[in-house]
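Follow-up to my post from last week.
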Amino acid sequence: MSEKVRLASVGLGRWARVLARGAQRGDVIDLVSCYSRDEQKRQAFQDEFGIGRAAASYEELLADPEVEGVLITTPNDTHRDLVVQALEAGKAAYTDKPIAHTLEHGVAIVEAAERSGVPFAVGHSARRLAGSREMKRWIDDGRIGDVSMAEANFSNERGLELTPEHWRSYPDKTPGGVMIQLGVHHADNLQFLLGPARSATAHARKLYTAAHVPDVVMSLVEFESGALGYIGAGWASPGIYTINLQGTKANLRYDLDFTHWDEGHLADDYSELRSQAHGQSEREVVELQRTDMFREQLEEFALAIRGEATVEVGPREALRALAVVHAAIASSERGGQAVELAEVIEAAGAGAAV
Amino acid sequence: MSEKVRLASVGLGRWARVLARGAQRGDVIDLVSCYSRDEQKRQAFQDEFGIGRAAASYEELLADPEVEGVLITTPNDTHRDLVVQALEAGKAAYTDKPIAHTLEHGVAIVEAAERSGVPFAVGHSARRLAGSREMKRWIDDGRIGDVSMAEANFSNERGLELTPEHWRSYPDKTPGGVMIQLGVHHADNLQFLLGPARSATAHARKLYTAAHVPDVVMSLVEFESGALGYIGAGWASPGIYTINLQGTKANLRYDLDFTHWDEGHLADDYSELRSQAHGQSEREVVELQRTDMFREQLEEFALAIRGEATVEVGPREALRALAVVHAAIASSERGGQAVELAEVIEAAGAGAAV
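User reply:
Got it. Predicted complex:
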């Protein structure tokens, strides 16, 4: 690669800084501009990351010929407009999970991405953790045998801290509450590991949060492979991030302390993968290579702009993760009846393309 | 207590020996007789446990004035007839989980037990493990805060070993397969911990066993308290026995190596309970007192015969555990729709009494 890929940050909150630090740990990306509606935030972001200029409007940013792609970290309900606008301006776009808050928005992004032909990536970084990658190797090379069950849980205390000012407190911006914010990670992880999900069966509850969205969601997931999955997502307890796989030859148990999640290059140091072989009760520690999930996904996106990499989580993969969330919401509304992903995707207006 | 309580063992297989060893670890119970259709098994059982006599028929056993109660360890589909016959003969009766294979049989046992007025107990021993008791204390004294989620898994490899000769291979004797054999333990544990369940939502699959029953069942459980539960039961992977509770003040994670399950007095030595406090990611080991689940439940049953103890898991508690299993089976048959326990119990012909 002759020169660094020139990207711009959009929405300059906590997560934009996490990603900027990830990008600056490598030498593939040059953050050349940034944009937020708040001028003070723009200045602070420029200062923190040594960024030469800021745009006064999103249109100005997209008109900047130096900018090859944008890193969007705004609230979920703004993803569609910002992404579509970028793609239509010929700029590559990256946004964080979920692809959008609704499947309608998600489908619009899929269509815009496929029309535009420029790279679009969604930051489902969790599948890049060393433990996720190692579990996938055990599946692919047959060490785990046939997987019959997968259980995952992502929970923390944030539902107890939500205030009325926050967009995460309302179902129009955060449908499914904890399920779209935390559960969606495992909706992607489990499909990365086990292949496409067919349906979700779920119960959602608003128990202990003051917000107007569920703080406890339990979902069963049927996979096209025949395996069954479970995703627990809670916002009313100390933090948990686990994935357990049960196979005919071995079990794998993954446990991550996600309080270090923001430092993508250190996250693996706070994780543990253990294996339990057929006929054994002992669990052995599996050595994990270290990864840097944020840097890796951003560099992949950047290199895809130059045609030197392929985006792993594009619009279709991200839409399938979101579809698990919305099938779970629909299931809970129907008293726990299984809801097929195909149904909610079609209801969102997706044509044959999705 | 002036003298030992005189009990007789019925069905002299592996589990009868586990229970006899449990009874003989204490000095409350005297095993005075035994019965199996197989005369050789009777003789071997007498020899192994130093039992003075054996009955040539079940009727003969129940007519023995020395025998105060029977310990029934025959296949699930024989529980009803043997229990009801014992109770009608005025003998106290103990049987192992599940109370019966069908709710119709379970309801018949409940009615017979309440008509008879003599003690009837079901061996849901798992709730007596030190970890279960300690989790209950954390709930009762408020240390865990409000519990929003409970996840439990009981799995082993036995589905892969089932042969056509075995009664566990057929749905008429083992409806729900792994769910009635393993999942029923957690159906009792979670109701012991969180109170009555209201409904089950489940998917059952026959994936890797040669038997004609499911080897993978995942169930969501709604509790009357509002909390949500999950029970995973698998017969196609290395062994797992876990209970995780998520509360607003703490999480508890219990993990048992059940390969030592048969030695009830040692099981706690192969278990671990860890707590995770609000705002913390570290998990601290919780000290567990030792218990002897089989001895304890048998002595409680024996002392209940003398009016010196109360049976903890009687017919109603055991029926509610079985009702979770059958609600889960019905739910899976209906494509994962939530099924209320009340519906399946009523459908089994239970009157207002249950």
